[in-house]
Design goal:
Structural class: alpha/beta
Distance between the termini: 51 Å
Number of domains: 2
Largest sheet: 10 strands, mixed
Strand content: 15-25%
Number of strands: 18
Radius of gyration: 22 Å
Shape: globular
Length: 479
């Protein structure tokens, strides 16, 4: 167990209080009775999209700005990580990846034609997956050639790429880094996940701790902003080991560190292996109390070393070092164009998600269609809830932005809910902003769900206590 010889006593005391706050919020009804975690990445959540036909998606669409966030999905992975809930493609050959790139290029042209643009004016770009760097250097050059030719990047603020440490190593890794740098990528989110070889093995990761340290060093050497990702609460992470891993992350002196709470419940069309542990008796999962304690200890260590939370779960020393892409579409509510298998396009008044099935994806593109599987044109109710929950989850809500998008004042629509959160020390307000308090940021996902319509909540009504913050109580908008 952690003691004052291992961690500063003020950090331990704060972690103890945070566990107490966790139970208070369960009793208040904000968090489900079991304390289970479900991330609020968008509204509605990923499991709740109705079928959408590509032909009707853009009917009546009127652009409201001249630039967009851009996301490109690469579905390929060497193996499936035990914690992953996404429908990625495993064991693919170079030829398989060439076929995917063929269709990705065609999809971009089909979508851009439907939007009536010859080039996309990008404000921020993210390459995600899967593993975007799990293609050869030659294929990476090919991708950037056709991708950047279709982008207007004159006003772009940040170009990011997610990656695994493994694909930044050796000669090919250095080549990938050079190619990305030449194409304009400046920020790398490196999925370290753990600094422990036994834990990495349990996660079914294909790299070890030494690989991570070499990859981080090489990325920094070549001038990239480096974001380092750690999963909090993975089975086998003892408190002492977790502290060691956070301190190792601090020793790397990267620009940004993300602390992810382990996602056990599936978020989409695939269920990760981690869920089978949760679903069996006598499983070795860490308790929710311990996950909260470990997360609080990590935040204390980060703050003690000069890192501060810039966005929910993102910690950096410099306020400007965070994911502009995440902030743009989640906080700023800017349009996001998604390309690739299972990618999402999120516009101000509608959203769509491409099919997760590779054969369906290829067939749609070969037929000249956008490969849309699900989505919807948002109702008025969905617009109001999305435009308060996502900015609050991300960083803060700018009241003027809410008024400009919805035509309403947030206090007139959600005044009772806002006051309840303020009364419980989770939210603060001034003339311009609604901002989560430090305690509110810790439970940002649950606060975002507090504004959900009951039909779109991840947990049923009987899973919550009948407290004042029960999301099923008083859910109606007030205007």
């Amino acid at each position: 167990m952690l003691n004052e010889e291992i961690v500063d006593p003020t950090i331990l005391e704060n972690a103890r209080r945070t566990v107490g706050d966790f139970h208070h919020l369960i009793d208040s009804g904000l968090i489900n009775k079991d304390g289970e975690f479900f991330p609020s990445l968008m509204y509605p959540t990923m499991m709740q999209y109705p079928p959408m036909k590509a032909e009707g998606f853009l009917d009546g669409y009127v652009p409201h700005e001249d630039s967009s966030c851009v996301y490109v999905h690469f579905p390929f992975c060497m193996m499936r990580c035990a914690f992953c809930h996404f429908p990625n493609v495993l064991g693919s050959t170079e030829g398989d990846k060439d076929v995917y790139l063929d269709h990705l290029e065609k999809e971009m042209d089909i979508s851009m034609s439907r939007f009536g643009v010859s080039r996309v004016k990008a404000r921020s770009i993210l390459l995600g997956g899967g593993t975007p760097t799990f293609i050869s250097p030659a294929q990476m050059k090919r991708f950037f050639n056709f991708f950047t030719a279709r982008m207007d990047m004159t006003a772009m603020t940040q170009f990011s790429c997610d990656t695994s440490p493994f694909f930044l190593l050796g000669y090919e890794g250095r080549e990938r880094l050079k190619i990305m740098r030449d194409a304009g990528v400046r920020r790398l989110a490196i999925g370290v996940q753990a600094f422990s070889d036994p834990i990495l093995k349990k996660m079914a990761r294909h790299h070890n701790t030494a690989d991570s340290l070499r990859a981080i060093s090489m990325a920094k050497e070549m001038g990239f902003k480096v974001n380092l990702e750690l999963i909090c609460g993975y089975p086998g992470e003892t408190p002492e080991l977790w502290v060691d891993m956070v301190r190792q992350a601090l020793r790397c002196e990267v620009d940004e560190i993300i602390i992810y709470r382990l996602k056990i419940l599936p978020m989409g069309v695939h269920t990760g292996a981690i869920y089978s542990l949760f679903d069996s008796r006598g499983n070795p999962l860490i308790t929710n109390d311990e996950q909260i304690r470990l997360k609080a200890v990590a935040i204390g260590l980060l703050e003690q070393n000069g890192y501060h939370e810039t966005m929910s779960r993102f910690f950096s020393k410099t306020p400007a070092d965070y994911s502009y892409y995440m902030s743009d579409w989640m906080g700023g509510q800017h349009d996001n164009l998604g390309f690739g298998l299972y990618s999402m396009t999120m516009l101000r008044d509608r959203f769509s998600q491409n099919t997760p099935d590779l054969k369906e994806y290829y067939a749609a593109i070969e037929s000249g269609k956008m490969p849309i599987k699900t989505g919807a044109i948002r109702t008025r109710d969905q617009q109001l809830r999305r435009n308060i929950s996502m900015p609050l989850k991300n960083m803060h809500l700018l009241k003027k932005q809410f008024r400009d998008i919805t035509g309403a004042d947030p206090g007139a629509v959600f005044g009772k809910k806002i006051q309840l959160l303020k009364d419980h020390g989770l939210l603060q307000e001034d003339a311009e902003y609604l901002k989560l308090t430090k305690l509110g940021r810790f439970f940002a996902d649950e606060i975002a769900q507090f504004f959900c319509h009951p039909d779109l909540l991840p947990f049923k009504k009987d899973k919550y206590k009948d407290g004042p913050l029960n999301p099923y109580v008083g859910y109606e908008t007030e205007a």
